[in-house]
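Dissemination and training. As part of the outreach component of the grant, students in the summer workshop were shown how a complex can be specified as a set of sequence lines and then modelled as a single object. The example used during the hands-on session is reproduced here so that future cohorts can follow it. Participants entered these lines:
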Amino acid sequence: MTTHPQLLRVHNFMVSRDGFGAGEDQSLEHPFGSAIDPSALFSWAGATASWPGRTEPGGSRGLDDCFTRDWGRDIGAEIMGRNKFTPYRGPWEDHPDWQGWWGDEPPFHTPVFVMTHHPRPSLTVSDTTFHFIDADPATVLARAREAAQGKDVRLGGGVTTVREFLDADLVDTLHVAVSPVELGSGLRLWESPDDLLDRFHRDVVPSPSGVTHHLFWRR
Amino acid sequence: MTTHPQLLRVHNFMVSRDGFGAGEDQSLEHPFGSAIDPSALFSWAGATASWPGRTEPGGSRGLDDCFTRDWGRDIGAEIMGRNKFTPYRGPWEDHPDWQGWWGDEPPFHTPVFVMTHHPRPSLTVSDTTFHFIDADPATVLARAREAAQGKDVRLGGGVTTVREFLDADLVDTLHVAVSPVELGSGLRLWESPDDLLDRFHRDVVPSPSGVTHHLFWRR
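and obtained this result:
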């Protein structure tokens, strides 16, 4: 077996057929913006046995589940943008009790590095510790790799953060689930999935659930 | 998150389009029987980055790799038939030096339970310990589940062993990769993949590599 390279991986990133992953007007009530019904993008994942948000037994273990269960495999840290952590902008002191969207048991179970221009002390919720870092993508990735202790690092989004790491050419693999809905506006991952083919191989895998999985890996 | 059920999983099980997984005349030179060129069944897996037998860097990280990398995820023990462990029949004393097909570093890294009518002391090679058990499938599965300490158990084959566990209705999920070759004879997994639909859901996923992945999970 070869030595394991320490990859930066994007998983279960959900976009509309026209390439949008979120609206522009995120709020507490509308984490993905008011124009987006998240269920249109997320329902394929919620139906699987391995979706971290599942609260009942059951769920499918077919193709879609292959992707939801791959999310945690061999991951030692996550990187996310501030807008994945909170709907609030500005100084953290304005919302001192906010601990993320995930309640008392965040699904990460690893260190999480939150990119923000407003540093603050680290925050531990159950077995997840959030670190708040004001730095460029390469620096944040170096920190996350060190914390991951040889395991891979997951890039958790949102759209703006994924775009930043793609622009810096730091992403090794991406799994994007394209839903058969048109949103028309919002924050865009791409004009077309073909945009990435200069740097990535790709498999396109239609699922019985109606989404199309795009799997990219570095050339 | 729900409590994790302890599944019995079959992964990367490779059969021909006409349902054969091995020939009848296994030998040291022909682990899958003389009529089968293993490369016809295995090449899709060998091309992936996560195939345990890969000895060089590189390899694809697309759809086929989703399956090869799922092989070790959350597995705490493996069960295999004697014929997966050795080409030799009869008493173990006739081949005292045989330690399996995998050299000094077997890819399992967990306890492995070898089903055989010829018990013998356990054998440790690197971080894999092989236990040799003369018992029915349900008893072997109970032993493997205990050893897996809450993780899943993988059923590693060969064909005869997978059939025994299917007949005893002990298998929770199966991934079978069907290659576009006809073998005409040998040890048969099924007459048709539809044979299992009375008890399992199924997704059928064609891969760019030419194999078709069949994913089964319990109804």
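Chain B touches chain A at residues 1-2, 5, 49, 52, 54-57, 60-63, 65-67, 69-70, 73, 105, 107, 172-173, 201-203, 205, 207-208, 215, 217 (CB under 8 Å). Students were then asked to discuss how this feature might be tested experimentally.
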